[in-house]
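Dear colleague,

Following up on Tuesday's group meeting, I ran the structure prediction for the two-component complex that the binding team flagged. I've pasted the input sequences exactly as they went in, so you can double-check that nothing got truncated or mislabelled along the way. The structure tokens for the whole assembly follow below. Feel free to forward this to whoever is handling the docking comparison.

Inputs:
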Amino acid sequence: MIAAWTLVAVGLSALTVLVYVAIRRRTNPGDLENAVQEFRSLDIDAFRNLVDSDEETFLREHLPPRKFREIKRQRAWAAFIYSWEAGRAAMALAKVGQAAQRSPNPGIAASGRQLSESAFRLRLQTIPACLYLMNAVLLPGRHARSLPTFADQYERTSETLFRIRGFSSAGQELVHSKGA
Amino acid sequence: MLGIGWHHVLSAISWHKVLSAILAIDWRKVPFLFLWISSHVLLAILTVVFYRRRLYRGLPIFFTYMLCELAGFIWVFTLCFILTGGNQLGYAWSATQLLSIVLLFGVIDEVSRDLFRESKLLRAVARRSLQCVTGLLLAVSVLLAVYQPGSISVKWFAGVVDINRGAAIVQSGMVVFLLLFSRLMGLSWRRPALGIILGLGVLASVDVASFALRAEFTSLTWTEFLNWLTSGDYLVCVLIWIGYVLAPETEPVFPPKPKSPTAIPDEEVETWNRELQQLLRQ
């Protein structure tokens, strides 16, 4: 009997998720300007410093354990926020990239494909990075390894974004072609 | 000509017999019959629209599912009037249910392929994750079938209910996973694919609840209520499909020309590049 009612609850929960997704679906493919601004606001140097293992070793050696855990928790939390925001920015870029992929202009479509693929990769990296950093917030005493893949991916996405900076003007071109 | 034809028909009808037939109808079944028939009529309309707009090219398994569902409905509906007793109707219903389950798994696969069509990376990651989710849900379904078989005395029917319940758990889990994953990654859906997956999700999640209750509560009142619920759910599902398929695909709407220039200035790009190169050299 309990199993039956549990399944009823599971079914209703799934239904709630579906209704939520259906209602919250946005047709707006994303705002390029906002996406670039969001991406720009992230300071890669600061993030790299926060997750640097050498820095952590230095702090561990020169601070009393209690103080170290406190500092480590704060650093991990700040890095978590960075990672979270990077994920959100990647999502926004992915939306812009996908919208550009549908362009009849092959150049814009190719740029959009490149941008969205790079953004997807970054988004995928931020998920384990967030989990890892949350773990560091909860258990600051544990030894941590650095997060090179996430930072590297961030850099690669930045490079992609800047390499295809003509994409913005191409987006404008698309607006005009749609309006015509 | 038409008037003469109708005159002959009307005069041939024995009004006494018609009245007897109406009185013989079990009126409790009317809402169920209405939901059951109307949902399939709408599904037939959707199939025609699908065919005329050539949407079956992009979603062939879903089109096959609709055709099979309609054929199954006609078969079971006909048997309802021909057969007066025995298990044949139950067997026919079970056969159509099992075929639907197989095809709906195909539909989920088809829609997921459509969703990840533009990214090799996501296709690989999503496929792996979806396999894990499916395996986990399948294990839960098997465990439920073994340890919570329900109180249905007829063995073959209990088996069919178990299979349906298990399939509904796996399908609703897969649909929820696809929707959440696409939301997490900022993926955009094509309108028909989103409609199909939403409708299918509604169908599967209500089925999870209804088949769980069907296995536990076997009284006539519960059976009638659950029949009514599943038929109503199917009608809602078909209406969602129609709504999303008939509505035109929205073109990507770019925001109006921004007030400030979006283009990244060269100076800033160079500064970033220098900084990034330094970082890479470290």
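Chain B has ten helices and no strands.

Cheers,
M.
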